[in-house]
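User: I'm preparing a small set of examples for a lab meeting where we compare how different chains pack in three dimensions. I only have the primary sequence for this one, and I'd like the structure in token form so I can line it up with the others. Please keep the answer compact; I'll paste it straight into my notes.
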Amino acid sequence: MYAEKYKKIDIRTIRAVRSIIKKGLLKADFDVRLELLCQLNKELSEIYEVKESRIIVDGYCGDGMYNPDNDMIVLNNKLSLVTYLHEFKHQLQHKKNKPNTEEIARGWSISVFHKATPILCENAIKKGLIIHEGNNIKIKCKNCKKDIKFTSNIEDVCLSCVEKIVSDYFDMREENEDDDDDDDDDDDDDDESDRIQIKQLEHI
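Assistant: Understood. Below is the structure token output for the 204-residue chain.
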């Protein structure tokens, strides 16, 4: 499981992530979220002793990316904490001249999120909002007759498999977003749950 992939993470990293969550990152408006992520970016850069990358927002960048040519972390308008952590890990691996794969970035970012706030992380996994071992989409290829996972090596998947996997994945994301819309009436309960979660974080 990605959430358990990295056992030893600098405690300062966990505390920094918890701090911006307690400051309201997950409920804040766009400007505040961006300010808090920039604050986190500065802190993590100091912790890992690397030059601070610039964060920019681009609604057409997909989920996010790290551009080593201009040392920029690019995020979409959602300003996802997990996506930021994912891209921070990419830039960190690049600057430290270490292996820099999707598995490494995904494992580290989800492990950090889980250690900082296990309940919120596990809820996101259950809703399919985070790609995670254990809830990957499994289909049987019509052509090769193999069971294929969303995270399979792309070289081992025929074109029809790729199309099916991508289609199923985004259908799942849309269903989850629809479910979230239906839950708008429960916002007060969600806020109370968040307050309880933050209270728990203060004692960890």
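A couple of notes for your slides: The chain has a mean pLDDT of 74. Strands lie at 54-57, 64-67, 72-75, 138-140, 147-149.

User: Perfect, thanks.
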